[in-house]
Write a structure and sequence with these properties.
It is a single chain. The chain is an alpha/beta fold. The chain folds into 2 domains: 3-221, Rossmann fold (3-Layer(aba) Sandwich); 245-503, Ribokinase (UDP-N-acetylmuramoyl-L-alanine:D-glutamate ligase), CATH 3.40.1190. It has 18 helices and 19 strands. Strand 5 (127-131), helix 6 and strand 6 (159-162) form a beta-alpha-beta unit. Helix 3 packs parallel to helix 4 (91-103), helix 5 runs parallel beside helix 6 and helix 8 (259-271) crosses helix 16 (447-460). It starts with a strand and ends with a helix.
Amino acid sequence: MRVVTGSEMRSLEKKAFESLGLSSLVVMENAGSRIVEVLKGEFGPLEGKRIYILAGQGNNGGDGLVAARQLLALGARVKVFLVGDGKRSTRENGANLAILHKLGADVAAVDFKQLNKLRFNLNFADLIVDALLGTGFSGQLAEEWVSLITLVNETQCPVVAIDCPTGVNSATGEVTSEAIRADLTINLGLLKLGCLLYPGRAYAGKNIVVDLGFPLEAQGIHRELLGPSALSWLPQRQPWSHKGDHGHALVVAGSVAYAGAASLCAQAVLRGGGGMVTVAVPESIYNRFPPDELIVVPVPETEAGTFGEGSLEKLRGLLAGKDVLALGPGLGRSRQVFRVVQALLSSWEGPAVIDADGLAALSGEFLNSVPESKRRQWVITPHPGEMARLTGSDPARVNGDRVGTAARFAQKWGLAVVLKGAPTITADPERIYINSTGNHGLATAGTGDILTGLTAALLGQGLDPLRAGALAAYVHGRAGDLAAERGQRGLKAGDCLGFIQEILH
């Protein structure tokens, strides 16, 4: 599903109006009809229900005014509260307001100095519709608007936002002071980015997308919400296939303190459909792995129990015959570990996924030394702190522009980026996917190691780096959602492993 900012949507609409000769009033009529259809579907018969619409001066308000008229025709008890002096209303807004007046609709202007009157009225509502600012808001809200929004949020009835809750930046999801907390947001035409990125996502509630009655040619916008349809990317398996057809992964992971990272990553390769996995670990933790499906190989280590320069000969030998390299979980962050990571990546010619401590070795100088043809086969999976180090930023800035940060880094270095978090963003130089799954239960040790293993499994089965990373993020989050049905708090990374097979069946 394509995702746009408010400004992109306005540009797309303008092009459609010009190329198709559409009337903006007709499109607004379509929008109002779709809004009413959603309200009927979500809240049942509307006849007799008190539906109060807060309408601004722009076309978002105009959409609300059309919906008000159509709701009146259905027998709803509609009241419209106009916010603004009316002098700056758009032509479409004014035209639909005039129709309501001719119909004798209950229309009142909101006086910011007497908000208690509005509070009294809203307490009788069965449903409130936010048609105030939509996607047109950015920056700071005036104090009087904050008071209005606070009043709406204190009501006990459901709230539906049109296009984007008032106070949420439709491009970034930013909420600078306060925003309307909607139970449902009706996205007109295309899904709005600010309704997917936190904190805006928390204010949008359930997102529903409705068409406007004409096709939207979103050329040049390569941003999509990733849902269950991504499972169609999985390669078809033949009944006569064997383990060698499904990829042999080499997992280079673990240290004396983090044997579990190597185990979780390797198990996720197999649960993700990988045919075989060889796990290279420092020799001191070799005996901590029980006999099972993993091929565990002890490798010479440093006195600190990590890989070092003395590990390289054996590790390089293990690269032979492998289809994919997974590198990083639990390695530690010594200079020797960094040299091992860089040496392996320099030697390896195939697809790779790099995570955790492996990312700490990716200096700009090193990345510059690697041919782009190699980097295009890589997937990196940083969390915001790791991304901040890679970009010379800080975690708050990374989270403030998750989509832009991931996209710019992918374009700069020609690789695929899986920026973990809420939501996880996957980008390569040409396309961006926004993940739709996951919950706060996944904010626990070891879940990133599982994501690394899943990504390696999909790379080994032939998916390109972008799709491998994006699908791994989707499956990882979905497994977390299934595991969290017993409760998000207290979820362990290992709880997710058993659900991966169920998702990928």
